[in-house]
Each structure stands twice: as structure tokens, then as C-alpha cells.
Design brief:
By secondary structure, this protein is of the alpha+beta class. The chain has helices spanning about 1-25, 55, 120-150, 155-180, 190-195, 380-390, and strands at about 50, 60-65, 65-80, 85-90, 95-100, 105-110, 115-120, 205, 210-215, 225, 235, 240-250, 260-265, 270-285, 290-300, 310-325, 330-335, 340-345, 350-360, 365-370, 375-380. A 6-stranded antiparallel barrel has the order 3-12-15-14-13-16. A 4-stranded antiparallel beta sheet has the order 4-11-9-6, with no helix packed on it.
Length: about 400
């Protein structure tokens, strides 16, 4: 019995020792009980990608730097004929068109004949010319005869003086008649031929007042035309200069002044820049669109611009400024219109960053917000990362 009680006591002691040791172990600080380090904040889900070394090698990475941007105002407009360099060629007198001598789109020189008309007014002027020439011829003969007779006292001094006066009057009448015919565009040689032949030349030649191109033709033979009435038979335009009519938002109107240089681009020549100057700022603004019109004269010596072409208009409105910038390939326009760039700190993990952009110039994009100078940015291959982020197959 005593032996049995002793065994129970030993067993109880062993159990107590085991429980005590377990409690002591639990009370000591162990690895599992140490406070955990807070995890570093990770990029938002879906805004970062991690690349393999070979993928990184396919990218170009550089520190964000600066670029000099000119302060420009940009808008759109249309190309137009320069109305001040276009001339509607009416005849100086009424009549019927006899011959059309130039075709539509033909290049003509100043003074080149465009068409002829049969003019009653010209007939009257030439008839007066022929008559005046005849009178002068007659009075000249009479004066010569009077001088001969006077030497033999065949006529009186008074008769000689009258003959001289008549001859001088006839000379004045002929000069006036020649001037009247000259107004119709007849040359001195043509006037002399009319006098010599004693025949009227009813065809009045209408010549181009400027060098340029025939841009409008409405003068078939037989058409009766009058000065400044109806549609002109011909319109000749100097096409070496065009107008660019730009539609400018009302808040931007104060930025423009006459004489400012402008740069114009059209879809037909995407790599070309046409240069000109602002020639007029219209005084009114459309009350519906709240836009005004700015007219520029654009040099076009090879006549490449066509009226009606849509054009981009850019003008420098301030001094150049140096600003944070990225190469154009570093900026991606996402599907929602957001402009983004890809930045990295370790050249392994790349984070997408929303940025706000400004002007574009010479392959550079101005960055107004979202990036700081010196940050490492993917300058070539950004679209690859955007496609990778969206799960699209990368090219």
C-alpha cells in the first residue's frame, strides 16, 4: 500500500514538472512571438510590372531631363485665295466678246491678252481718230500752200495766220483722238496703223493686269459684257501667296498681333511647314462659337496649297522656356485618355505614373505634373509595358 502511494506521488510530481516546464517555455519570448516588421507599401495592384533581364535589355531607360519649348498658340483653319491678290478682269467698255485667248488654270503674264471684245465705243473713238488725222493732213497742206502764196503776195498775212491756226487746232484734235484710243489699250503702233489704213479696228484687247493664274473663266465668245457688272469674264490670281483663315478661341484673341510670324501645316504635306505672317485680325467674334478670325499671308511660291485645305496654325506668343520634358516615345495615351509614363528605381520593377503634359516640340513632350527631374523613365518601350500591364500581347 505504501509502495502504491509512493508511485502515485512520483507520477504526480512528474506531471507537475512537465506542466511547469511547458508554462516556462511559453512565457519566454521566441521567434514566433517577436513583433513582425510592417510590410513595405507595394504599388497599387495592376500599376507595376516586373521584367526579366532580357526584357529590360529591350528597353531604353534615361533620367528625366529638360527641353526648351517655345510658347505657342495652336489652332486650326482653312487655306484660301488671297483676295487682295486676285483681280476680276472686266473690259473698260461694254461690248461682245469676240475671242477668248486664255484658258482656266493657265499661267499668264502681266499685259498678256486674255480676250477681245467688239466695242462700239472703240469704233467711235477710232473713227474720230481717222477723221482728226485727215483734218490735220488737210490743214497742213493748206498751211504749206498759204506760205507759198504769201511769198508772192497771193494771200494776205491774215489768211496765212488763219491757216497756221487751223493746222495747230488740227494737231491738238489728233493728239486728243490718239489719247482717246490709247485708253482702250491700243499701242502707238496700232494707232499708227489705223491712221495709215484709214480702217477702224473694232476688236478691243483686254489684257491681264497682273502675273498669275486664271482662277475663274466665264467669258465665252458672244457674251455681252460691261465694266464692273455681273460676273467678270476672267479672274487672275497671284498664287505665290495664300491666305490662312484661322478660327481662334475668344480667350486667345489678345495673344495675336499683326506682323507675328506663323507656321502652318496641312495634311497633304505632313512633313512640310509653310511660313507667313499675320496680316489681319478681324474685329468681330462669332456670338455662337465665341471664336474670332485671324488672317495670315502664307508664302507658297510653288503653288502647293489649295483653297479649302484644312490647316494647323501655330504661332509663337512668348519667349522660349526650359521645362521638364520626356521624349515622345516615353509618353503613352491610355484608353481613357490618361497620359502616362513608366518609372523605375531598380531597373527591374517598373511603375506606371499618370502625368500632365503640355506642348510638343521636336519630338519632345512637356511634362507639367506627375514627374520630377532625374527620375528614371522608360524612354523607348513604354507602350510595351502598357500592353503588358493590360494583358495584351506585346509586340
Amino acid at each position: 500500500m505504501k509502495k502504491k502511494n509512493r508511485n502515485i506521488a512520483v507520477l504526480a510530481f512528474a506531471v507537475g514538472a512537465l506542466l511547469l516546464s511547458t508554462a516556462l517555455l511559453r512565457s519566454q519570448p521566441g521567434e514566433n512571438n517577436r513583433p513582425q516588421k510592417p510590410a513595405e507599401s507595394a504599388p497599387p495592384a495592376g500599376s507595376a510590372v516586373q521584367l526579366s533581364p532580357s526584357q529590360v535589355n529591350s528597353l531604353k531607360i534615361a533620367a528625366a531631363g529638360t527641353h526648351v519649348f517655345a510658347l505657342n498658340a495652336d489652332t486650326i483653319g482653312t487655306i484660301s485665295f488671297a483676295d487682295e491678290r486676285s483681280v476680276q478682269v472686266f473690259p473698260p467698255y461694254q461690248g461682245k466678246i469676240v475671242r477668248s485667248l486664255a484658258e482656266l488654270n493657265e499661267n499668264v503674264r502681266k499685259g498678256q491678252p486674255l480676250y477681245t471684245i467688239d466695242s462700239p465705243d472703240l469704233i467711235q473713238a477710232e473713227s474720230t481718230l481717222i477723221s482728226a488725222a485727215g483734218v490735220l493732213e488737210l490743214t497742213t497742206k493748206e498751211l504749206a500752200r498759204a506760205r507759198t502764196l504769201r511769198s508772192s503776195n497771193g494771200v494776205s498775212e491774215r489768211e496765212l495766220e488763219q491757216a497756221a491756226s487751223d493746222q495747230q487746232t488740227a494737231e491738238g484734235s489728233l493728239r486728243a483722238a490718239r489719247n482717246a484710243v490709247r485708253v482702250f489699250g491700243k499701242t502707238e503702233d496700232e494707232i499708227d496703223r489705223i491712221i495709215a489704213s484709214r480702217k477702224v479696228d473694232a476688236e478691243l484687247i483686254v489684257r491681264s493686269p497682273i502675273s498669275g493664274q486664271v482662277t475663274s473663266f466665264a467669258g465665252p465668245a458672244g457674251l455681252f459684257v460691261q465694266p464692273g457688272t455681273g460676273t467678270s469674264p476672267y479672274t487672275v490670281s497671284d498664287l505665290s501667296v495664300k491666305w490662312m483663315l484661322a478660327s481662334v478661341p475668344e480667350p486667345d484673341m489678345p495673344l495675336f498681333r499683326q506682323g507675328q510670324p506663323v507656321a502652318v501645316k496641312v495634311i497633304a504635306y505632313p512633313e512640310r511647314v509653310f511660313h507667313g505672317v499675320i496680316s489681319k485680325i478681324y474685329s468681330s467674334v462669332d456670338p455662337v462659337t465665341h471664336r474670332g478670325t485671324v488672317r495670315s499671308e502664307i508664302a507658297d511660291p510653288r503653288n502647293e496649297l489649295r483653297p479649302g485645305m484644312l490647316a494647323d496654325f501655330s504661332i509663337r506668343v512668348g519667349k522660349p522656356v526650359e521645362s521638364l520634358a520626356l521624349p515622345a516615345n516615353a509618353v503613352v495615351r491610355e484608353g481613357d485618355g490618361t497620359m502616362t509614363a513608366w518609372v523605375t528605381t531598380d531597373r527591374r520593377q517598373f511603375s506606371q505614373r499618370s502625368i500632365r503634359v503640355g506642348q510638343r516640340s521636336d519630338g519632345w513632350v512637356q511634362v507639367l505634373a506627375g514627374l520630377t527631374r532625374g527620375e528614371l523613365v522608360v524612354t523607348d518601350g513604354a507602350i510595351f509595358l502598357s500592353n503588358m500591364l493590360q494583358g495584351a500581347p506585346a509586340d
